Amino acid sequence: MLGDYLISGRRASEIAASIETGVGAGALAPGALLPPMRELAAELGVNPNTVAAAYRTLRERGVIETDGRRGSRVRARPATAPRDALRMAVPAGVRNLAEGNPDLALLPSLEGALAAAARRYAKEPTLYGQDPVVPDLARLARAAFEADGVPAGAMALTSGALDGIERVLAAHLRPGDAVAVEDPGWGSVLDLAPALGLRVLPVAVDDEGPVPEAVARALAEGARALVVTSRAQNPTGAAVSAPRARELKELLAGHPGVLVIDDDHGHGIVDVPLCALSGVTRHWALIRSTAKAYGPDLRLAVLTGDAVTMDRVRGRQRLGPGWVSRLLQYAVVELWTSGAVDPTAVARSYGLRRDGLIAALAERGVPAHGRSGMNVWLPVADETAVVTRLLTAGWAVRAGAGYRVEAGPGVRITVSTLTQDEVAPLADAVAAAVRPVAGGRFD
Question: What is the CA radius of gyration of the chain?
């Protein structure tokens, strides 16, 4: 069952630590079946309730999963081995289209914004007890939300989109609850949910967003939350269309107790309109981060949502980091008001590269997807073989395994730095490496 690895400990915390150490060291492989609780309790000379408490702790940490009478196993991807950490080494001389970063040439310099923030800070030093959201930032964010038809709601700030998603999920869900997540979808969310002890219900995606039948199935299976990427979906480039949003809203209206999270991380780099699902259920949140448009190190995301959700997020935040640095908030205000980024020009630049590659692939009989954002998703028969062949041809792309649960294999190509001269040779290399897989869904 566990090979030569011996679980040790007398207390629940010690037993959990022993198992987690074995997983982290690779001695307990993904999928390894753990001993039944009574059997392990007898071996260790402890009460079965002690082992039960250890297993419960490990489930909540995302290390193991329990499947009724089939027992408890090490998760296929434990929280100690996040998908994002499984990156391929890119040899020198290989064109790297695997990292998912924005184009540095399209990011504004932060020097002026940070200098302006420092000058403002010198006049208005931040002290304990102040409003966690700078009024100027709140006003600008609210105006942008209203322009996009987002319902009026309370506001909070977090250190990036993933931090916001985690805090909103934790505000309502508890270990054992189910959350519906896009498949393929952002690997960090696919890891975050089980790390919080939540059960992932994969939802199929097409170019217009989550497939209604798949969402309905997840809701029927008891999903207490739904996480949707509004546009620039990672890895597929999907964007929720107006007809799809109406259909999903009608569906969610019949489940008012479900928490809905709209991740609008693509704000500022896309030219498709926002079609959010926010406001149709009692508890909801829409999250906008500054990372893609202004720089990954500008760790700030604006959240709006219902009063209860935002109050819980802010309350828990007060017991941790307290607030997002007002220096960063001042810098974002400066960036937003100075016109440092032209969203239309940025969206056009990414669109030319993305659409150009998709068109070139289509000419070669290779269907690909990418309605918005900086990524192109390519369904393939064997992603390992395709990634290897492309690497040999001088191109590095990401294998789709890090973005999917039940969806079919694929590869992600980040086009943010792709030049027009590279489109044709890349398309030639891809066509030579793949066997086209037809179909509108990514499953």
Answer: 23
